[in-house]
Amino acid sequence: MTPTIDVDHVARLARLVLTDEERERFGRQLALILEHADRVREVAAADVPPTSHPIPRANVLRADEPGPSLSHEDALANAPEAEAGMFRVPPITEREEEG
To answer: Contact 3/35 with Cβ under 8 angstroms?
Structure first.
């Protein structure tokens, strides 16, 4: 079954101005796309649940387990500036002048 396509309507929705040649070409292309969608719909079985992947996927991340890390002093050792045991960074917002 060949679907009917209103190319002018689709072009209006996309805010496109089409020439006659483009209208005919896009009409053929859209018809092919819709025919393919109809074929896929025919294959779909009611007893098969929809899936996002053709094969089951497992979590590929490792377990989140605590491990050795830098000491507080080592982490701050190469910081350009530190203050009160924390990284000192330039302000990212401007302060309003008090007045």
So the answer is: yes
d(CA 4, CA 11): 15
Give residue-wise pLDDT tens across range 59-82. 778 888 999 999 999 999 989 999
Number of neighbours of residue 7 by Cβ within 10 angstroms:
19
The residue ranges of every structural domain in the chain are 7-43
Amino acid at 37: A
Bridge partners (DSSP) listed for residue 86:
83
pTM reported for the whole predicted model: 0.41
Mention the CATH class of domain 7-43.
mainly alpha
DSSP H stretches of helix in the chain: 7-13, 20-43, 72-77
3-state secondary structure of 77: helix
Q: What's the CA gap between 76 and 87, in Å, rounded?
A: 7
Cα 92 to its chain centre, rounded Å, is 28
Q: Could you give phi then psi for residue 82, rounded to 5 degrees?
A: -135, 150
